[in-house]
Design goal:
The protein contains 7 helices and no strands. It has 193 residues and is mainly α. It has one domain. The longest helix has 34 residues, at 103-136. The chain is flat, with a radius of gyration of 18 Å.
Length: 193
Amino acid sequence: MTSSELLLGLGLGVGLSAACGFRVFVPLLLAALAHRIGWLPLGEGFAWLGSGPALTALVIATVLEVGAYYVPWLDNALDGLAAPAAVAAGTVLTAAQLTELDPLLKWAMALVAGGGTAGLFQGLTTAARGVSTTTTGGLANPLFATFELGGSLVTTLLALLLPVALLALFVAALLCLLVWVLKRRARQAPSPA
């Protein structure tokens, strides 16, 4: 695997993983459809994702997941299940892109980059939904669910169309967040007397 193939695979995997943090099954379904039409090659052992039974299961799971997030009490309950599912989906989608790597390296990178990204985005959306539920009594949660669905769709499409650009954007956003946290800590630190 060349460095450009690795960068492309990581970009695609991390982008799809970020989308899993918004909705677990939307990126899985779109990746399976993209594979089915020959647009997205998947690594050895992952072709099952584009099979008829897998597509059927993903369509059903996607419809149920999207619908469930429009029920205010159910959306918060689903977050407990969605967090590990998002990490698993992000790991699998990233591993499917890291072809021709040593299996240990592939799965380690997939877990850290893919699973970590999915977990980060899932944690952010869970926290935001908790604020929405607390401040609006759940009335704004359907609007929030629409935002999450849109975020998952857009992120998935960007990952499929511009994976390296999305990876660069993600890294830049993480660096900005790190700088912001460090500046905030510096301002809050007690000054020496």
